[in-house]
Amino acid sequence: MSVTLRNRFALAALLGTAVFFGPDIEAARAQEASENRTKLNTSIPVSASNRTKLQLSVYPGNLAMIAEQRTADIPEGQSILQIDGLAPTVMDDSFLIGTPNNSDLVWTSLRNSMNGADAITALLRNQIGKEVIIRRDDDLIEGTLLSLSGMALVQTDAGIEQVPIHQIIISKLPDGFSPDPSIEAEIATTSALDHLSMAYLLGGIGWNTSYVGHYDSEANNLTLSAIARVTNQSGAAFDDAQLRLVAGDPNRVSQAPMPVAKAARNEMMMSAMADSTGAAPDRESFENLHVYGPFDGLSMQDGDTVILPLIDKQSLPVTRRAIFNGSSNAYNMGQNGEPDFVRPDLEIKITNKGGADNQSPWPDGVVRIFANSTSGDTRFVGEDNLSLTPVEREATLRLGKASDVSGTRHVTSFTRKARPNMPDAVTADLEWKISNTSSRAETITIYENMPSDWVVNAENHKHVLVQPGLIRWDIDVPANQEVTVSWSVSSIN
């Protein structure tokens, strides 16, 4: 006896209050449906062309979830449903089936007819023991298909031959065959239905965030906006879908399936919502995930890329710094004797204030920063990766190497004395000369590494102990001036 599989899920959360389940049907009735399957000679089509609702939620890592409704004439009792129009990357073990709240439904089995890219193999399995035609150069040869395992074994007038699958011609498709993947579901319901609700996961659809920032260095302000780039490589097309984009880090134990490799379409679709005057949609959240959308009316073919607005423009104050890092090994710092010339990394910090709803995190993405040149033209400045940034958290963006701020690091004196069974005793005097040739004041930060058991004996600017072994100076350097930072260190053990 087969084991009855129950599928009782609240799809109202996926498709709205119009779709959810009633109480369980008796297990015995579901079992009866399975045992009487042979009495059901025809299956009821549940076609994608009869889809009335479609929601597409795209997660990180090329994973998506479909929630949909389709109309179908399903009688009371036991039925076999033929559900077509599925992507080749459908994860059949995630398949959920639901009904209205005034009807009970259970399913006893789901059979996945994975046609799609492997359609010819599925067809040939149904031809075993039957007559087929073999294409050989310009000849067509009749034979009987004996078996199928990678290659086909065919009986011809010449004998038994091993034939590549692509050389076999099938003259007629079997009844009910679909070139797309389909699922055959055995169900039992307590009343007639005029529609069915489904939800399932699939692979091959992904999204990423691209940020555009306009940096005003005079006002120390960054205008930041974001778009979402959605790519469909699922092997299926979607029409008039309601799209949601999910940001966060859901735990995964396996990779979502991908379709057979193919050439991607070069077509780029731009949503009407992406007009610069349009507003990004509202955002919701659940558990540890954040949802952007819904975007209504999404249509895309397999291979398409769609660009959508994600975050409205935000005007953000900037903290700007030029970062110097001392790199000499502490015990060898005095050997060279020549000053080290250093160009600092230019960084800006911004804080996520949550956007219009004061609650929106910034998803992972690439930030491309632009600024106006002295002629007034917009120029590219630099780009950096932005990790998911919660509300009220800072994000640091590297613009590149500064060209108007530079420094030289010099060890002005150094002594090193060997000690038996102990590290050498070291004392050293060091200095940074920081030059700012720009027309604006710059804040510079100097980081120096030194052993945690060393001490700073003297300095002309006060340092901060960041952590054991790392110290920092923060200093303002006026426009067109030079500042010297000097300090002395010694080992104490």
Structure report:
With 493 residues, this protein is mainly β. It has four domains: 12-115 and 178-203, no CATH class; 127-169, Roll (SH3 type barrels), CATH 2.30.30.140; 229-312, no CATH class; 319-491, no CATH class. The protein is 4% helix and 55% strand. The chain is built from three helices and 33 strands. A hairpin with a 5-residue loop joins strand 24 (365-372) and strand 25 (378-386). The chain starts with 11 loop residues before the first helix and ends with a strand.
Counting DSSP E segments of at least 2 residues, the number of strands comes to: 33
Largest sheet: 7 strands, mixed
The amount of helix comes to under 10%
Number of domains: 4
Mean pLDDT: 81
Q: DSSP strand (E) fraction?
A: over 45%
Strand order of the largest sheet: 5-13-3-2-16-19-18
Distance between the termini: 79 Å
Low-confidence stretches: 1-31, 261-280
Q: How many helix segments?
A: 3
Oligomer designation = single chain
What's the Cα radius of gyration?
33 Å
Tell me, what's the shape?
A: elongated
Judged by helices, strands and strand pairing, the structural class is mainly beta
